[in-house]
Amino acid sequence: MKKILKILSEIFILLAIGAISSFLVMFFNMPVSASVIAIMILFCLLLTKILKESHIKTTGDFLSKNLIFFFTPAAVGIIEEYKYIKDHILPFFIICAFVTVVILITTALSVSILEKKINNGKDID
Amino acid sequence: MEQIFIDYPILSILLTLVLYIISHYIYLCFCKIKITFIPPVIFALALVSSFLLLFDISYEAYNKGAMVITYLAIPATATLGLVAYRRKDLLKKYYPIIILSISIGIVCGFITTFFMAKYMFNLDYKVMMSLFSKSTTTPIAVAITENMGGLRAITVIAVFISGCFGAAVALIIFKIIRVNSPLAHGLALGNAAHAVGTVKAISLGKTEGSMSSLALTISAFLNVVFLPLLLKLFTIIFN
User: Which of chain A's termini has less CB crowding within 10 Å, N or C?
Assistant: First the structure.
């Protein structure tokens, strides 16, 4: 019983954070999405020790491992949009794929070069 | 069949849940035979889409119930804050590196997109505008695109392709450029492949997942700030 109450309270915290972030985005007309604000709110609550890790650990771990479930309907919706661009899919695919690789390489390389500079050549995790 | 889904919207939630669980097991089977590069979202998407096609159910009918899942995506994504918090020591130590390298990634991505779209494929102005924001999560990308005068449908697909492709090839790319640091892996995945990449990073390890969640958040803000500025600069120089 205690465990159920704890999980319910964890779900409540997450729903409240979701509701607050959606409200903030609507009210201040923010250019970023509610989910990014929600990540930030939870992160800041944990940093300022208002929330402890143990307060949302069970549900938090479960949901972060099963995030894909929540994206599935939106991904199915994308298939609907496919018909608008199916004639030009090749250039799109090439650009998206190539640029994604460029971002992967530039980010990873700059991190590893700068990281080594800070650690004087020592490789740490 | 479609009428049942319209009358009982809860069915589409049930359907998504069942197919998600099945897709998870299919993904595990693929992992067993060492095929790990296909992102799990592809399996879930394939199952749900083929079900809808097979029984001739329109997306509108399906989404009547399934939109509840999409609403719940916001509180569910919030848990990435917890994932990021677990390695807050790294953020404290490396925050200049994190911000700098994410910015470098965004700028290089912008420049490549600009030249490929303009000179290699001669894409329409509106189409080109829709491609810049593709490395952020869908809602942000759509907001940026609409702000810059692009087309929503193209952005949504571009975001999806980038996420899946990035998550699929990331490990091979890291091997080729010989980067072994988990910090670099996490940040690159979050910056290039947003949520799909972050799911991949979480499966790699604690540090990777944490850094990827951070990169996802920071890159969202930096993209919102940088993209319009870069676009102005480049249209002045190259027109």
Answer: N
For residues B111-128, give the mean pLDDT: 88
B11-40 residues touching A, CB cutoff 8 A? 12, 16-17, 19-20, 40
Task: Please check whether residue B140 is in contact with residue B220, taking contact to mean a CB–CB distance below 8 angstroms.
Answer: yes
Closest approach of chain A CAs to the CA of B95, in angstroms?
Answer: 11
pLDDT digits (tens, 9 = 90+) for A30-83: 878 888 999 999 999 999 999 888 889 899 999 988 888 998 998 888 877 777
Residues 5-44 of A with CB under 8 A from B: 14-15, 17-18, 21-22, 31-36, 38-43
Q: Tell me if chain B has a CB within 8 Å of the CB of A119.
A: no
CA distances from B234 to A50, B136, B206, B229 (A): 44, 21, 39, 9
End-to-end Cα spacing for chain B: 54
Complex ipTM value:
0.90
Q: Do A53 and B85 touch (CB under 8 A)?
A: yes
B152-176 helix and B40-54 helix, angle to the nearest 10 degrees:
140
The number of angstroms, rounded, from the C-alpha of A93 to the middle of its chain's C-alpha atoms is 24
- Cα–Cα–Cα angle for A94, B45, A60, nearest 5°? 105
Q: Nearest residue on chain B to A80, judged by CA atoms?
A: B59
Q: B214 with B204: CB under 8 angstroms?
A: no
